[in-house]
Fold:
Amino acid sequence: MPTTLTAFADVTTSDSALRRFLYGLPGVDAVGLEARAAALGTRSIKTTAKAYAIDLAISMIDLTTLEGADTPGKVRALSAKAVNPDPTDRTTPMTAAVCVYPDMVATAKAALNGADVKVASVATAFPAGRAALPVKLADTHDAVAAGADEIDMVIDRGAFLAGRYLETYELIKTVKEACVRPDGTAARLKVIFETGELSTYDNIRRASWIGMLAGADFIKTSTGKVGVNATPANTLLMLEAVRDFKEQTGIQIGVKPAGGIRTTKDAIKFLVLVNETVGEDWLSNHWFRFGASSLLNDLLMQRQKLSTGRYSGPDYVTVD
Structure:
């Protein structure tokens, strides 16, 4: 299978060409999409599979703090929790990453002290994305220079919803270039669509293709800062998009649902979506992540219950 975007080279040569391509994508059957997502969400798994799923979900979490009141102490505590989520059980997996604002990247990097946990940083005027391009690029450069392993950028939803698709594509492409360090290595780029603001499933599909064509390493549902964030239906749609993209190009793209995923039951539903839609190739934290803050505690409590037979309750896990 070729690993190339050559077949799509003409698609991004002009706004009209990109528009023709995007509007030529199959329309989304909203009823069918939601029905399939709901049906997959009813799948039950047995105890041994549940234990595996819990550990897998823990290993896929981007443990996140994105508040105006974030302090170095809070970021250090979160980093310690990422490395050792359950101090009473050292077999508990580490989380995939700690996700912070750019000014906290160096603090998180120092606190992790070489542990196998990535530092992800939001950028490009997160969460609204309402800033001039030089500001967005400076935001990205600062995070990468401070040691960020991954950049979570937001698209300009205003440009996208106004139909300025090539502008949206060029923004992602330019930020992707800003992720490259002087030594040639690069931070991986996650592109956030804020699906709750895109209004339609067709728009989510179009945004997914713009992100993938522009070089996204991950496509991500949401910032977690609006009323509607990750849902099984919008995540299923994005999984179908990365599946189709890989079939046509040979290039694999990750998916990150973020916001509103709070319980073990929720997380397992999303893992079932992954397994049934794109398969085992995506069942690792290199290709699938959860953007979450409260999810980890519920996973830890359920893990303790499977191990001890007793439900320990929230007092037995740290409060973030």
Remarks:
- Strands lie at 61-64, 97-100, 118-123, 150-154, 188-192, 218-220, 254-256, 290-292.
- Residues 45 and 268 are 9 Å apart (CA to CA).
